[in-house]
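Researcher: Go.
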Amino acid sequence: MAPGEAKTISIYLKAPATEGIYTGYWQLQTPWNAVFGVGPYSEPFYVKVEVSDARRPAYGVTSVTYNIVRTPETGCPVNVVYTVYATITTNGPYVLEYYWEQKDGNESAKKSLFFTEAGSQTISRAWMVGRGDSPNPRWMQIVVTDPVLHYYDKATWPNDCP
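Model: Structure:
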């Protein structure tokens, strides 16, 4: 092979007969018996396999719904606070990691939600809009990052106090 040339290598792997987590490490060898791996420290590359005969139900998020509360309800004071309540529903026990994303790029820190059974939990985030801010509509949304990345619909509202 020439330097920089790519080569596809196929490896046949057979799962062990007993449950557990198995990791296989490999390095390559040149025709001159020099062993090498990946990166500047020639680390071995690896594959990790979990063997289980358990039948795991496919639980997950079934819906995310929003409720937007404006404080104060009417009028145009110096600041208006919009609180977005997101109700997240799952169809069974589930753990997820999420964050809030909003139109102005201000994202929340990642947080976790734990469901011990099917059901709903409500979380919230507030956004204060000042009088004289851009008259454009605002939005927030829930982004689940783990175990499966998913961007849910946006909760949108007008800025009615330009």
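Model: The longest strand covers residues 79-90.
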